[in-house]
Amino acid sequence: MTPQTIIRAQPAPKSFEQDAYSFLVKFAHRKRGHSFSAEMVTLAALKKGIAAPDMRNWGPVFRAVAADGYIRRSDVLFPRSMGNGTLSPGWTET
Questions:
Q1: Is 79 helix (H, G, I), strand (E, B) or coil?
Q2: Cα three-residue angle 56-12-23, rounded to 5 degrees
Q3: For residue 58, what pLDDT band results from cuts at 50, 70 and 90?
Q4: Residues 6+ apart with CB under 8 A from 15
Q5: Rg of the chain over CA atoms, in angstroms?
Q6: Could you tell me if 79 and 55 are in contact, meaning their C-beta atoms sit under 8 angstroms apart?
Q7: What is the reported pTM?
Q8: Per-chain mean pLDDT for the chain
């Protein structure tokens, strides 16, 4: 692989998208009144056997759940433990 190679996430299987969507809605409901990070969700989902071929496949799931009005961005910042440690806004149930 050369430095010019563009890495793209593989499309997630339909079952992943459906399972992840449901899991995120339920996770947010359980956290009602408390902010949570995307990493909290993805790590909890992995423990339940919900795994994407690529972690970037979670982005469209979060956008869909937010667009459907189940979650929104919170003002609470969380450090990205799987990323570079920068702070990222969390999520909260609407």
A1: strand
A2: 80
A3: very high
A4: none
A5: 14
A6: no
A7: 0.81
A8: 88
Q: Cα 62 to chain center, whole Å?
A: 5
Amino acid at 18: Q
For the stretch 16-57, pLDDT in tens is 999 999 999 999 999 999 999 999 999 999 999 999 888 899
DSSP 36: B
Pairwise CA distance, residues 88 & 6, whole Å: 24
What is the torsion angle, in degrees rounded to the nearest 10, for the CA atoms of residue 15, residue 20, residue 26 and residue 28?
-160
Q: Decide if pLDDT at 72 tops 90.
A: yes
Listed residue (30, 27, 91, 21) closest to 57, CA to CA: 21
Contact (CB, 8 A) for 46 and 91 = no
Residues 6+ apart with CB under 8 A from 38: 58, 62, 88, 90, 91
